[in-house]
User: Fold this.
Amino acid sequence: MNDVATSRQDPHAGQPVLCTGAALDSASAVIIMLHGRGSSAENILQLAGELEHPRFAYLAPQAAGNTWYPYTFLAPLTNNEPYLSSALAKVASVLSMVTAAGIPASRTMLLGFSQGACLASEFMARNAQRFGGLAALSGGLIGPDGTPRDYPGTLDGTPIFLGCSDIDAHIPKERVLESADVFRRMGGDVTARLYPQMGHTINTDELQIVQSMMTMLADEAR
Assistant:
C-alpha cells in the first residue's frame, strides 16, 4: 500500500504528539490530552499550565486537519470512518508509548474537550481496564441514539468525570447522562455535572475537579 492510500485509510497515523511537563522516564503519571474540532494539540496542551503538577507528563496527539472525524459524534458510526478508527488507533499508539516507558494504564489519565472528549470517552469504553482516570469536558460516547453500548470488560473503579453545559449546542445533556450510566455499569467511579446555561467551554470547577483527580493519582503512585 502506497503512502497516499495509507494516509486515506489511517489519516492520523503520521501526526505528531506534543509533550510537556515531566519527562516520561521520570514522571509518576501521565495525562493524554485530546483537542477539539478545529483546534490543535498545541492549544489543548495549554491546559497543562492550569493543571500544573510536577510529577505529570502531558502528551497531546495532533489530529490530521485539526479534526478527529468529519461529522457530528451523533452521526452513524460508518459516516465517520476511516477517521474514527484512525483516531482511536492514534490514542492507542500514544498509550502504548506511555506503557513502553514503564507507566501503566492505571497511572494514565485521558482528558478531552468537545470532539476530543467524545474520542476519549469512546476509547475508554472500547478498551476497558483500570485507567488513571477520564475527564470528558463537553463530550460523550460516540454514535447515534440507540447505538448498542455493550462494551466488554470492566473499568475496575476508574475515576471518571463528565462535565458539560445543560444547553450545549453540540453535546446533548441526555448523551452526557447516558454516557455516565454506561460507565457506571462498566465499573467506573463516575461523577457527572451539568452546568446551567454555560457555553461550550471549560470552567473553573471542571479544572479543579481534574486537578483533584491528578493529585489523587500522583499520591497513589508514590
Remarks:
- The chain has a mean pLDDT of 95.
